[in-house]
Amino acid sequence: MKHWRTRIAYLGIALLVLVLLAYGFRPQPVAVDTARAERGALRVMVEEEGRTRVIDRFTVSAPVAAYARRVDLKVGDEVKRGMPLLVLEPLSSDVLDPRSRAAAEARVAAAGATHLAAKENAAAAASSAELARVDHMRALELRKGNLASAEQEDRARAEAERTQAVLRAAQLQVEVARHDLDAARTTLAYSAAQERGEALERVTLRSPVGGRVLTVHRESEGVVANGEALIDVGDPHALEVEVDVLSDDAVRIRPGMRVEFERWGGDEALNGVVRTVEPAGFTKISALGVEEQRVLVIADITSPPEQWERLGDGYRVEAGFILWEASDVLQIPSSALFRASGDWYAFVVEDGRARRHKLEIGHRNGLQAQVLGGLKGGETVIVHPDDTLEDGGRIKDRAEE
Questions:
Q1: 269 with 339, same domain?
Q2: Do 241 and 390 share a domain, yes or no?
Q3: Are residues 158 and 294 located together in one domain of the fold?
Q4: Which residues pair with 205 in a beta bridge?
Q5: 381 lies in which domain range?
Q6: Are residues 141 and 164 located together in one domain of the fold?
Q7: Residue 153 lies in a domain
Protein backbone atom coordinates (compact mmCIF):
# COMPACT_ATOMS: atom_id res chain seq x y z
CA MET A 1 0.00 0.00 0.00
CA LYS A 2 2.81 2.34 0.88
CA HIS A 3 4.46 1.56 -2.43
CA TRP A 4 1.38 2.66 -4.38
CA ARG A 5 1.15 5.89 -2.46
CA THR A 6 4.73 6.76 -3.39
CA ARG A 7 4.08 6.07 -7.07
CA ILE A 8 0.90 8.21 -7.00
CA ALA A 9 2.86 11.09 -5.37
CA TYR A 10 5.57 10.94 -8.03
CA LEU A 11 2.93 10.83 -10.75
CA GLY A 12 1.22 13.91 -9.29
CA ILE A 13 4.49 15.82 -9.16
CA ALA A 14 5.21 14.89 -12.80
CA LEU A 15 1.79 16.05 -13.88
CA LEU A 16 2.26 19.36 -11.99
CA VAL A 17 5.61 19.90 -13.72
CA LEU A 18 4.05 19.21 -17.12
CA VAL A 19 1.26 21.68 -16.40
CA LEU A 20 3.74 24.34 -15.32
CA LEU A 21 5.90 23.76 -18.42
CA ALA A 22 2.87 23.96 -20.69
CA TYR A 23 1.78 27.19 -19.03
CA GLY A 24 5.29 28.65 -19.21
CA PHE A 25 5.74 27.88 -22.94
CA ARG A 26 2.27 29.04 -23.89
CA PRO A 27 2.42 32.04 -26.33
CA GLN A 28 2.04 35.27 -24.37
CA PRO A 29 0.07 38.26 -25.67
CA VAL A 30 2.30 40.93 -27.26
CA ALA A 31 2.08 44.34 -25.61
CA VAL A 32 1.26 46.98 -28.26
CA ASP A 33 0.27 50.62 -28.61
CA THR A 34 -2.96 51.32 -30.45
CA ALA A 35 -4.81 54.16 -32.11
CA ARG A 36 -8.29 54.52 -33.55
CA ALA A 37 -9.15 55.26 -37.16
CA GLU A 38 -11.07 58.52 -37.03
CA ARG A 39 -12.45 61.07 -39.43
CA GLY A 40 -11.20 64.63 -39.32
CA ALA A 41 -9.30 67.35 -41.09
CA LEU A 42 -6.08 66.42 -42.83
CA ARG A 43 -3.52 68.74 -44.33
CA VAL A 44 -0.37 67.99 -46.36
CA MET A 45 2.23 70.76 -46.06
CA VAL A 46 5.81 71.66 -46.86
CA GLU A 47 7.24 73.51 -43.87
CA GLU A 48 10.43 75.56 -44.05
CA GLU A 49 11.96 78.54 -42.29
CA GLY A 50 11.87 81.87 -44.14
CA ARG A 51 12.44 85.56 -43.56
CA THR A 52 10.70 88.77 -44.46
CA ARG A 53 12.17 91.36 -46.80
CA VAL A 54 11.14 94.73 -48.17
CA ILE A 55 9.62 94.33 -51.63
CA ASP A 56 11.23 97.44 -53.13
CA ARG A 57 14.60 97.99 -51.51
CA PHE A 58 16.72 100.81 -52.93
CA THR A 59 20.48 100.97 -52.35
CA VAL A 60 21.97 104.44 -52.76
CA SER A 61 25.57 104.12 -54.00
CA ALA A 62 28.39 106.55 -54.65
CA PRO A 63 28.31 107.61 -58.35
CA VAL A 64 32.01 108.60 -58.25
CA ALA A 65 34.99 108.15 -55.96
CA ALA A 66 34.66 110.99 -53.48
CA TYR A 67 34.88 112.13 -49.86
CA ALA A 68 31.58 111.40 -48.07
CA ARG A 69 30.43 113.65 -45.28
CA ARG A 70 29.06 112.11 -42.07
CA VAL A 71 25.56 110.67 -42.37
CA ASP A 72 23.16 112.18 -39.83
CA LEU A 73 20.31 109.76 -40.57
CA LYS A 74 19.72 106.71 -38.39
CA VAL A 75 18.17 103.35 -39.22
CA GLY A 76 14.40 103.73 -38.99
CA ASP A 77 14.31 107.46 -39.78
CA GLU A 78 11.57 108.48 -42.17
CA VAL A 79 12.59 109.90 -45.54
CA LYS A 80 10.66 111.43 -48.39
CA ARG A 81 11.22 111.21 -52.12
CA GLY A 82 13.96 113.66 -53.15
CA MET A 83 15.12 114.26 -49.58
CA PRO A 84 18.94 114.74 -49.25
CA LEU A 85 20.60 111.71 -47.70
CA LEU A 86 24.31 112.61 -47.73
CA VAL A 87 26.83 114.87 -49.47
CA LEU A 88 29.92 113.87 -51.47
CA GLU A 89 32.87 116.22 -51.89
CA PRO A 90 35.95 116.02 -54.14
CA LEU A 91 38.86 113.95 -52.88
CA SER A 92 41.71 115.74 -51.08
CA SER A 93 45.06 116.26 -52.79
CA ASP A 94 48.03 114.04 -51.98
CA VAL A 95 50.47 114.90 -49.20
CA LEU A 96 53.86 116.10 -50.55
CA ASP A 97 56.80 114.42 -48.90
CA PRO A 98 60.19 116.25 -49.09
CA ARG A 99 61.25 114.52 -52.31
CA SER A 100 57.88 115.15 -53.98
CA ARG A 101 57.94 118.80 -52.90
CA ALA A 102 61.46 119.27 -54.27
CA ALA A 103 60.44 117.66 -57.56
CA ALA A 104 57.35 119.89 -57.73
CA GLU A 105 59.44 123.02 -57.12
CA ALA A 106 61.84 121.90 -59.87
CA ARG A 107 58.92 121.46 -62.27
CA VAL A 108 57.74 124.99 -61.44
CA ALA A 109 61.18 126.35 -62.24
CA ALA A 110 61.35 124.39 -65.47
CA ALA A 111 57.88 125.52 -66.50
CA GLY A 112 58.84 129.13 -65.74
CA ALA A 113 61.94 128.86 -67.94
CA THR A 114 59.92 127.28 -70.72
CA HIS A 115 57.43 130.14 -70.46
CA LEU A 116 60.20 132.75 -70.78
CA ALA A 117 61.70 130.91 -73.75
CA ALA A 118 58.32 130.80 -75.45
CA LYS A 119 57.87 134.55 -74.95
CA GLU A 120 61.29 135.21 -76.47
CA ASN A 121 60.46 132.99 -79.44
CA ALA A 122 57.21 134.88 -79.84
CA ALA A 123 59.06 138.20 -79.80
CA ALA A 124 61.48 136.95 -82.49
CA ALA A 125 58.57 135.69 -84.58
CA ALA A 126 56.87 139.08 -84.24
CA SER A 127 60.00 140.83 -85.56
CA SER A 128 60.23 138.47 -88.54
CA ALA A 129 56.54 138.93 -89.25
CA GLU A 130 56.88 142.75 -89.18
CA LEU A 131 59.88 142.64 -91.55
CA ALA A 132 58.01 140.36 -93.95
CA ARG A 133 55.01 142.69 -93.86
CA VAL A 134 57.18 145.69 -94.75
CA ASP A 135 58.86 143.77 -97.61
CA HIS A 136 55.44 142.81 -98.92
CA MET A 137 54.25 146.45 -98.88
CA ARG A 138 57.42 147.53 -100.64
CA ALA A 139 56.99 144.87 -103.33
CA LEU A 140 53.45 146.09 -103.94
CA GLU A 141 54.68 149.66 -104.52
CA LEU A 142 57.41 148.48 -106.86
CA ARG A 143 54.94 146.35 -108.75
CA LYS A 144 52.73 149.36 -109.35
CA GLY A 145 55.68 151.19 -110.97
CA ASN A 146 56.64 148.10 -112.97
CA LEU A 147 59.90 147.98 -111.09
CA ALA A 148 59.27 144.46 -109.71
CA SER A 149 57.96 141.33 -111.31
CA ALA A 150 54.78 139.54 -110.33
CA GLU A 151 56.86 136.63 -109.05
CA GLN A 152 58.68 138.92 -106.60
CA GLU A 153 55.36 140.23 -105.33
CA ASP A 154 54.05 136.69 -104.83
CA ARG A 155 57.18 135.68 -102.96
CA ALA A 156 56.90 138.71 -100.64
CA ARG A 157 53.22 137.98 -99.93
CA ALA A 158 53.92 134.29 -99.19
CA GLU A 159 56.74 135.20 -96.82
CA ALA A 160 54.48 137.66 -94.98
CA GLU A 161 51.77 135.02 -94.56
CA ARG A 162 54.35 132.43 -93.39
CA THR A 163 55.82 134.70 -90.76
CA GLN A 164 52.34 135.60 -89.50
CA ALA A 165 51.60 131.89 -89.07
CA VAL A 166 54.88 131.39 -87.21
CA LEU A 167 53.97 134.33 -84.97
CA ARG A 168 50.55 132.86 -84.12
CA ALA A 169 52.16 129.47 -83.33
CA ALA A 170 54.73 131.18 -81.09
CA GLN A 171 51.95 133.05 -79.25
CA LEU A 172 50.08 129.76 -78.70
CA GLN A 173 53.28 128.22 -77.34
CA VAL A 174 53.43 131.08 -74.84
CA GLU A 175 49.88 130.22 -73.69
CA VAL A 176 50.74 126.52 -73.40
CA ALA A 177 53.84 127.31 -71.38
CA ARG A 178 51.83 129.61 -69.09
CA HIS A 179 49.24 126.91 -68.42
CA ASP A 180 52.00 124.39 -67.71
CA LEU A 181 53.47 126.84 -65.23
CA ASP A 182 50.07 127.29 -63.54
CA ALA A 183 49.66 123.49 -63.32
CA ALA A 184 53.10 123.10 -61.74
CA ARG A 185 52.34 125.86 -59.23
CA THR A 186 48.99 124.20 -58.40
CA THR A 187 50.77 121.03 -57.23
CA LEU A 188 52.55 123.14 -54.65
CA ALA A 189 49.55 125.29 -53.80
CA TYR A 190 47.10 122.44 -53.00
CA SER A 191 48.00 119.47 -50.82
CA ALA A 192 46.32 117.46 -48.06
CA ALA A 193 48.69 119.02 -45.53
CA GLN A 194 46.98 122.39 -45.94
CA GLU A 195 43.70 123.43 -44.34
CA ARG A 196 40.70 121.89 -46.05
CA GLY A 197 38.64 124.73 -47.41
CA GLU A 198 35.06 124.79 -48.53
CA ALA A 199 34.54 122.44 -51.48
CA LEU A 200 33.71 124.22 -54.71
CA GLU A 201 31.77 121.22 -56.05
CA ARG A 202 29.45 118.90 -54.15
CA VAL A 203 27.26 115.95 -55.08
CA THR A 204 24.08 115.60 -53.03
CA LEU A 205 22.57 112.11 -53.01
CA ARG A 206 18.79 112.13 -52.58
CA SER A 207 16.26 109.46 -51.66
CA PRO A 208 14.72 107.80 -54.73
CA VAL A 209 11.50 106.92 -52.82
CA GLY A 210 9.64 107.74 -49.66
CA GLY A 211 9.92 105.33 -46.76
CA ARG A 212 12.44 104.68 -44.01
CA VAL A 213 16.17 104.16 -43.72
CA LEU A 214 16.79 100.41 -43.63
CA THR A 215 20.59 100.25 -43.51
CA VAL A 216 23.40 102.78 -43.14
CA HIS A 217 26.43 101.05 -44.63
CA ARG A 218 28.81 103.89 -43.74
CA GLU A 219 28.00 106.45 -41.06
CA SER A 220 31.32 108.22 -40.54
CA GLU A 221 32.84 110.56 -43.10
CA GLY A 222 35.63 109.33 -45.31
CA VAL A 223 36.69 108.31 -48.79
CA VAL A 224 34.23 106.10 -50.70
CA ALA A 225 34.86 104.17 -53.90
CA ASN A 226 32.87 104.45 -57.09
CA GLY A 227 29.77 102.25 -56.75
CA GLU A 228 30.14 101.67 -52.98
CA ALA A 229 26.79 101.12 -51.20
CA LEU A 230 26.02 103.88 -48.70
CA ILE A 231 22.36 103.79 -47.58
CA ASP A 232 19.39 101.44 -48.13
CA VAL A 233 15.88 102.92 -48.12
CA GLY A 234 12.46 101.40 -48.64
CA ASP A 235 8.98 100.99 -47.24
CA PRO A 236 9.11 98.54 -44.28
CA HIS A 237 5.34 98.07 -44.44
CA ALA A 238 5.55 96.57 -47.95
CA LEU A 239 6.92 93.15 -47.06
CA GLU A 240 7.23 89.80 -48.77
CA VAL A 241 8.54 86.49 -47.47
CA GLU A 242 11.38 84.53 -49.06
CA VAL A 243 11.65 80.84 -48.22
CA ASP A 244 14.29 78.47 -49.54
CA VAL A 245 12.91 74.94 -49.94
CA LEU A 246 14.37 71.71 -51.25
CA SER A 247 14.18 71.44 -55.01
CA ASP A 248 12.03 68.29 -54.87
CA ASP A 249 9.54 70.20 -52.70
CA ALA A 250 9.68 73.25 -54.98
CA VAL A 251 8.30 71.26 -57.93
CA ARG A 252 5.12 70.66 -55.89
CA ILE A 253 4.65 74.34 -55.04
CA ARG A 254 2.96 76.60 -57.57
CA PRO A 255 1.98 80.29 -57.72
CA GLY A 256 -1.34 81.01 -56.03
CA MET A 257 -0.92 78.26 -53.43
CA ARG A 258 -1.98 79.16 -49.89
CA VAL A 259 0.66 79.63 -47.20
CA GLU A 260 0.46 79.94 -43.43
CA PHE A 261 3.15 81.79 -41.46
CA GLU A 262 3.65 80.71 -37.86
CA ARG A 263 6.12 81.42 -35.04
CA TRP A 264 6.61 84.97 -36.24
CA GLY A 265 5.97 86.47 -32.81
CA GLY A 266 2.20 86.90 -32.93
CA ASP A 267 -0.53 84.79 -31.37
CA GLU A 268 -2.25 83.89 -34.63
CA ALA A 269 -0.90 82.45 -37.86
CA LEU A 270 -0.70 84.80 -40.84
CA ASN A 271 -2.16 83.92 -44.21
CA GLY A 272 -0.25 84.29 -47.44
CA VAL A 273 -0.14 83.24 -51.06
CA VAL A 274 2.75 82.09 -53.25
CA ARG A 275 3.72 84.71 -55.82
CA THR A 276 6.84 83.26 -57.44
CA VAL A 277 8.79 80.02 -57.51
CA GLU A 278 12.18 81.03 -58.84
CA PRO A 279 13.30 78.92 -61.83
CA ALA A 280 16.95 78.70 -60.75
CA GLY A 281 18.19 76.79 -57.72
CA PHE A 282 21.36 77.07 -55.64
CA THR A 283 23.51 74.83 -53.50
CA LYS A 284 23.37 75.18 -49.71
CA ILE A 285 25.24 73.30 -47.00
CA SER A 286 22.86 71.98 -44.34
CA ALA A 287 23.57 71.97 -40.59
CA LEU A 288 24.74 68.37 -40.98
CA GLY A 289 27.25 69.34 -43.67
CA VAL A 290 25.22 67.89 -46.56
CA GLU A 291 24.98 69.71 -49.89
CA GLU A 292 21.37 70.44 -50.80
CA GLN A 293 19.79 71.97 -53.86
CA ARG A 294 17.46 74.73 -52.71
CA VAL A 295 15.00 76.99 -54.50
CA LEU A 296 13.68 80.38 -53.39
CA VAL A 297 9.91 80.74 -53.10
CA ILE A 298 8.50 84.27 -52.73
CA ALA A 299 5.14 84.70 -50.97
CA ASP A 300 2.94 87.70 -50.16
CA ILE A 301 1.24 88.23 -46.79
CA THR A 302 -2.53 88.53 -47.29
CA SER A 303 -3.56 88.99 -43.63
CA PRO A 304 -4.65 92.54 -42.65
CA PRO A 305 -1.58 94.81 -42.24
CA GLU A 306 -2.60 95.84 -38.74
CA GLN A 307 -2.22 92.20 -37.69
CA TRP A 308 1.49 92.11 -38.59
CA GLU A 309 2.47 95.78 -38.30
CA ARG A 310 5.32 94.89 -35.91
CA LEU A 311 7.05 92.75 -38.53
CA GLY A 312 10.09 94.30 -40.15
CA ASP A 313 12.73 93.61 -42.75
CA GLY A 314 14.69 90.38 -42.18
CA TYR A 315 12.37 88.89 -39.51
CA ARG A 316 12.17 85.10 -39.11
CA VAL A 317 8.94 83.19 -39.88
CA GLU A 318 8.01 79.56 -40.41
CA ALA A 319 6.13 79.04 -43.65
CA GLY A 320 3.79 76.13 -44.30
CA PHE A 321 2.86 75.62 -47.97
CA ILE A 322 -0.49 73.80 -48.10
CA LEU A 323 -0.21 71.21 -50.87
CA TRP A 324 -3.54 69.49 -50.11
CA GLU A 325 -6.21 69.63 -47.40
CA ALA A 326 -9.66 68.20 -46.66
CA SER A 327 -12.02 68.60 -43.70
CA ASP A 328 -13.53 65.08 -43.46
CA VAL A 329 -10.94 62.35 -44.02
CA LEU A 330 -10.65 58.85 -42.54
CA GLN A 331 -7.12 58.72 -41.18
CA ILE A 332 -4.73 56.72 -39.05
CA PRO A 333 -1.22 57.43 -37.75
CA SER A 334 1.45 56.90 -40.41
CA SER A 335 3.39 54.83 -37.84
CA ALA A 336 0.72 52.11 -38.10
CA LEU A 337 1.54 51.43 -41.77
CA PHE A 338 4.09 49.01 -43.17
CA ARG A 339 4.91 47.78 -46.66
CA ALA A 340 4.66 44.20 -47.89
CA SER A 341 4.92 43.08 -51.52
CA GLY A 342 4.58 46.68 -52.67
CA ASP A 343 1.28 47.29 -50.82
CA TRP A 344 0.34 49.09 -47.63
CA TYR A 345 -0.78 47.04 -44.62
CA ALA A 346 -1.77 47.64 -41.01
CA PHE A 347 -2.60 45.42 -38.06
CA VAL A 348 -6.19 45.83 -36.87
CA VAL A 349 -7.24 44.75 -33.37
CA GLU A 350 -10.05 42.15 -33.52
CA ASP A 351 -11.13 40.24 -30.38
CA GLY A 352 -7.76 40.65 -28.72
CA ARG A 353 -5.82 39.50 -31.78
CA ALA A 354 -3.85 41.31 -34.51
CA ARG A 355 -5.33 40.90 -37.99
CA ARG A 356 -3.35 42.11 -40.99
CA HIS A 357 -5.43 44.26 -43.37
CA LYS A 358 -4.41 45.48 -46.78
CA LEU A 359 -5.18 49.21 -47.05
CA GLU A 360 -5.57 51.73 -49.82
CA ILE A 361 -3.70 54.87 -48.77
CA GLY A 362 -4.15 58.39 -50.13
CA HIS A 363 -2.35 61.52 -48.93
CA ARG A 364 0.17 61.46 -46.10
CA ASN A 365 1.73 64.30 -44.14
CA GLY A 366 4.30 62.38 -42.11
CA LEU A 367 2.10 62.02 -39.02
CA GLN A 368 -1.27 60.96 -40.42
CA ALA A 369 -2.30 59.00 -43.51
CA GLN A 370 -5.56 59.10 -45.44
CA VAL A 371 -7.32 55.72 -45.67
CA LEU A 372 -9.29 55.21 -48.87
CA GLY A 373 -10.16 51.56 -48.36
CA GLY A 374 -9.61 48.47 -46.19
CA LEU A 375 -10.57 50.08 -42.88
CA LYS A 376 -13.66 51.53 -41.21
CA GLY A 377 -14.00 54.46 -38.90
CA GLY A 378 -13.70 53.55 -35.23
CA GLU A 379 -11.52 50.46 -35.78
CA THR A 380 -8.35 50.17 -33.75
CA VAL A 381 -4.93 49.77 -35.37
CA ILE A 382 -1.56 48.94 -33.89
CA VAL A 383 1.09 51.65 -34.12
CA HIS A 384 4.78 50.86 -34.44
CA PRO A 385 4.29 47.14 -35.14
CA ASP A 386 7.50 45.11 -34.68
CA ASP A 387 8.74 41.84 -36.17
CA THR A 388 7.34 39.73 -33.31
CA LEU A 389 3.78 40.60 -34.27
CA GLU A 390 2.06 38.01 -36.46
CA ASP A 391 -1.27 37.82 -38.20
CA GLY A 392 -3.74 36.34 -35.67
CA GLY A 393 -1.36 36.71 -32.73
CA ARG A 394 -2.69 37.60 -29.31
CA ILE A 395 -2.07 41.15 -28.14
CA LYS A 396 -2.68 43.38 -25.16
CA ASP A 397 -2.94 47.14 -25.11
CA ARG A 398 -0.30 48.86 -22.99
CA ALA A 399 -2.79 51.57 -22.15
CA GLU A 400 -4.99 49.00 -20.35
CA GLU A 401 -2.22 47.59 -18.19
A1: no
A2: no
A3: no
A4: 86
A5: 26-42+328-400
A6: yes
A7: yes
Q: Which residues of 241-257 are buried (b: 16+ CB within 10 A; e: fewer)?
A: bebbbbeebbeebeeeb
Same domain (yes/no): 168, 130 = yes
- Domain assignment present for residue 4? The answer is no
Asked if residue 197 belongs to a domain, the reply is no
Q: What is the pLDDT along the chain (401 residues), one digit of tens a residue?
A: 556 667 666 676 767 666 665 555 556 777 888 899 999 999 999 999 999 999 989 999 999 888 898 998 999 899 999 999 999 888 777 666 677 777 777 887 888 888 888 888 888 888 888 888 887 787 777 777 776 677 777 777 888 788 888 888 888 888 888 888 787 777 777 665 555 555 567 889 999 988 899 999 988 888 899 999 999 999 888 899 999 999 999 999 999 999 999 999 888 999 999 999 999 999 999 888 899 999 999 999 999 999 998 898 899 999 999 999 999 999 999 999 999 888 999 999 988 888 999 999 999 988 999 999 989 988 999 999 888 788 888 888 887 65
Q: How many domains does the chain have?
A: 4
Catalogue the long-range contacts made by 104-113 (C-beta closer than 8 Å, 24 or more residues apart).
Answer: 104/184, 104/187, 104/188, 105/188, 107/184, 107/187, 108/181, 108/184, 108/185, 108/187, 108/188, 110/184, 111/177, 111/180, 111/181, 111/183, 111/184, 111/185, 112/181
Q: CATH no. for residue 30?
A: 2.40.420.20
